[in-house]
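Box 3.1 A note on notation
Throughout this textbook, protein chains are presented in two layers. The first layer is the amino acid sequence; the second is a token string describing backbone geometry. Keep the layers aligned when reading.
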Amino acid sequence: MDITKYKILRRYINKRPNVRPGTRLVSGTPGFFVAHDSGNPGADAEAHYKYFNSMIDRDASAHTFIDDKRILEIIPTGTGPDHAEKAWQVRYNVTTDNDKYGDDANDIALGVELCYGGKINTVEAYNKFVWYLAYCCWKWGKNPLIHIPTHKQLDPSRKADCEQALESIGKSLKDLIYDVATELEGEKVVPKAPSFVALTPYIANALITNYVRPAWKASKDAGDADGAGHFHRLANNLRSAAGIDAEGNNLAAAVKLHKSNAQEIIFRWLKPAWQKAHRAGDQVGKTHYNNLANYLRKAAGMPIE
């Protein structure tokens, strides 16, 4: 991608517990990027800088505000010389971020706000918004299909951003993700027939319930944090391969399953179950486990057996 296409401005608000606590992301570098809109049509990036720099009555903030004229970081993100710091962008008592990414958005993610409406040229602001998200994916090696949730996806009972700003210019979340992917690749991305077959949500959830979750619990009970983390990520990868998040909401698109994930599930659980059914002369069971294995192979773009 063209990493010099736009200039990133950095002017940080004063450190105060309710807006900029000054503490680093616990993940060091950002783990994902929450797509917000300001919810305040007509207010540009400068207006939001002034607002958060003087706000005292509540706990709220975000890292970056983008309008048609500027990309303005008001809390360090790590794109420049300063370490990425926390911002108060998603409520801690909402657990969708924990379920999908293993931690709270405030602690491991950047909050990126699209300014829109009024005298703002929202199309141009959107172009900068797309580029900045692509730049973040490029800098930290993230996949736009996985690592750009919206605030609405993380807190659907309370928030409507950034979908409400996208709708104002005839864009959808799927458009945003494809536009970020296009910017990241540096050429027009034309959706092609995928090289894999997405899992159905039913299959993904059945595999998680029957195999992955018990393994996660066993690791957690044994104090094996690495094992528990592995199985947590495995469950999230299965959901992504079915195009859903931890709450069952649809993602912009399903993501190809890692070959290693498919092989692990097959050899750890499905092959032993097939062998047990074989020894018992259980043809129905053998067919069931073979079908599950082939669903996983197809989701990883592997040949079926």
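The first strand starts at residue 8 and ends at 10. The chain has twelve helices and five strands.
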